[in-house]
Here is the input.
Amino acid sequence: MTFLGVVGTLPDWLVIWSPRIATAIFLFAFGASVGSFLNVVVYRLPAGRSVVSPPSRCPRCGWRLTWRENLPIVGWLLLLGRCRRCRGRISIQYPLVELLMGCLFAAVYFVLFWPPRGSWVAEIGGDWWTLSRFGTAWPAYGVMVALLSALVAATVVDARTFLIPAGITTAMTIAAFAGWGLQAILSSPSTDVTSFPLPLASWSVIWIALGAAGGTLIACFLLRTGRIRRSFADYEDFVPEGDVLAEYPHGRREMGVEVLFLLPILFGGLLGWGIHTLLRSDGPPPHLLEVLGASVFGWFIGGGLVWAIRILGTLAFGREAMGMGDVHLLAGIGAALGWIDPIRIFFLAPFIALAWIAVTRFVATLRGRSTRELPYGPHLAAATVLVMVARPFVDELQRMLLQPPN
Here is the structure.
């Protein structure tokens, strides 16, 4: 029997859905591989070690794992959770993270591309995803899964060390800029701007983002050349190793240093807005500019919100209110989701933090144990996932709140 004959005997639904099923299986395997890499990131990055070399080894005896033992999920099962050489236990965290990322990659594909248009699940992504094919929209899909991967890595590291490595947030931001830029090249402009995954930028937003980006380059140049010093540069002189940053005695003074760094960025944004008012460009911007402008503007809005709270809170209480890792985290989220969602996440995260504190204290009281403090980064990550998953509800709630009274 020929291949076409075999296909002809299959049910119609299987013939139609088999390419999508195959794609989902591939994405699950790819996501599990990403999870394997994230295991390396969360283990090595906080220790300042390279995530590329040396190859994966047993942390106890240094036994170098073979390619079979490195297979995501399967490798751990083949070893029965123990090193082949020293028989030391291998944490179950490794296959669980790999399984989580595989499921996330497949679930995002299912939610964005599978549901029929008009269903509640389809509203999570929107019409653009439902009408697009994976072959055209894969860069935008890549931005979404890169965002979720970075959130998982940042949450695990932050919960353990109370630090979010800059490498995670930088990779998230670069993936967002590159993904959306490539997506703008592959896809044509939409006649309905509300259907695109990002709130597309107008000429004014593009010029503001361009000016702020130029100001950022100037601020970084001043920092690199020593004309502006880094904040908390003398931290180790005042705080013994192992103590929290909140005990640093000169927090208010250091906020002046950070404001000095931000001045070129603020002036650059104002200059961009001024240039726009003078030029008054007619017609819609090129699709590439309106997409990249939306991503860059979201980066500034996300980072600016947390940085403003960091500065104001530190000035008010004399202690560092929020870490720079949180600033970079919400900035990267803004680069991936645009400028509207970071505002929602910013206001939702405190409620998630309060709920976490209430639940953990209640559980700790029942068990007679003390509660473990959790940094703010995981709450930002949880708020991000909630905004993404509950987007139809969030959009409806926003319309209700902003609707003028009759």
Summary: The radius of gyration is 24 Å. The mean pLDDT is 86.
